[in-house]
Amino acid sequence: MRYHKTTSLISFYLLCAAFISNFSGPQSLAKPSSKIDAAQNSVPRFETAPCAIAVPETEKEKARCGYLVVPENRERKESRLIKLPVIILKSNSATPAPDPVLRTLGGPGASSLRMVRGRRSSPWLNNRDEVIFEQRGTLYAQPKLDCPEVDAAKVSNARSGVDERTAIGREVLAARTCRDRLVKDGVDLTGYDSVQSAADIEDLRRVLGYEKWNLYGVSYSSRLMLEVMRDYPRGIRSVALESVLAPSVNYDETGVDGAVRALKVLFANCAADGACARSYPRLEKLFYDLVRRTNQHPISVNVKQQGSVETLTIRLTGHDITTWALDYLLSADAETIASAPAKIYQVAGGDYSPLKDYAESKIGPGFYMLGMRYSVWCREEMPFENRRLINAQSRRYAGLRGYTIQASLPAICDVWGLPASRPLENEPVRSSIPTLILAAEYDAYTPPAWGRLAARTLSHSYFYEVPGVGHGPGFSSKCAREMVAAFFDNPSAAPDDECLKTPGQKFTTDK
């Protein structure tokens, strides 16, 4: 989701959408000017302004909004300024702790502001304020680095059912067009990476006047919070990280390994559960037979594009079946995962209704500002990866032969044309700042091993694996959220993990 899209990471953002289901869209009145101030004599600064999105009625008296104004590229003296939206939610307490919680989402390229819907699921608000930060280049930032050209190419590929090589070629050409447009519009793409975003977070702390605060990151934003820990440790009281993306992991070289691991956990847990094993025998073999068969003979699913009455037939391959299983079933809450064996059996039996949402997502709007995503990835990740090892993954597992992770990104990074980040960005972060690390049992995108890896060089860290859930455990596990809140209250001690000690996975066995 790295970062949030080992495959498409649809389900993680479906979780986010459910989490903020009453979000009513952009605020139409009193938006700040789109003209970016070019003056350099008063930055960084915070400008109070109407919220960049509509906040819930229940939050209007508790939300303070504005923009962080910073240089687009701090390495360039004449860099223009950019504006990054911020929403500050007041604590439920009349006397909150002086150190708030800073939150931002992952991707890279995902918007964070919709977390304003999460008061009921943010127990730390009982004792301290929450600062929600929109990263540079994302949806409500000025500028945003969207690539509608690539989104259109993906939709066209799905509608026409072209082969993978042709689809990748179209995406790469569209990415080149997007890059050229952004550069023509004056965007300095070298200013969009974790180093600059970490500096944004430190600038925000200083202009808001906080001596120290607590950082909370998930998936890619866990990587970003680690960067803040590396570069600006003095302003940090404690850090909570979920589904950790360890800087030293070369994601594209190991992404399929994570997918296979998550599937193995599902198959093993079903086999160990008597009722599941009886209802869905030989689940692993059935799944891989389904993938192989569907790669040989793709299936068709009829869907309607959002806002259209036209019915489209979307062709799905075995690789699509794999992505569907990972995204919709393994990046979810315990209840959804409990139904995974039943859903797999349903599709294998010829009932393709569970695939409808996945098929519709192939012709729907994207979740990420792809220009931001590519800029981060092509500076911090791809330059340090081995293309031979990336390609070898598609041959490593017989059951998923030919399956790739982010198949178009190597070629897109070739045309995106950015210099590599400093080698330090690919090395572990070493710190004694109190850190809580939460991994998820079924996480196909950032496996628990990566959280343990990050913990090795964090001398005051606590690691826990949350059972029964997928990527981003705090979105689906009340226990995980309560542990985070308890940790922020007392980061010098390990939080009580009794709520994690629940009975084993119980699967849905109604056919």
Task: Describe the protein.
With 511 residues, the chain is α/β, with parallel strands linked by helices. 39% of the residues lie in helices and 13% in strands. The protein has helices spanning 10-19, 148-160, 164-184, 194-208, 220-231, 251-272, 274-279, 283-296, 318-330, 334-338, 340-348, 356-361, 370-380, 387-396, 409-416, 448-455, 473-476, 478-489; strands at 45-48, 63-71, 81-89, 101-104, 130-133, 213-218, 236-242, 299-304, 311-316, 435-440, 461-466. The strands form two sheets. A nine-stranded mixed beta sheet has the order 1-2-3-5-4-6-7-10-11, sandwiched between helices. Helix 8 packs across helix 11 (340-348). The longest helix has 22 residues, at 251-272. The chain is globular. The two termini are 32 Å apart. Residues 1-40 have low confidence and may be disordered.
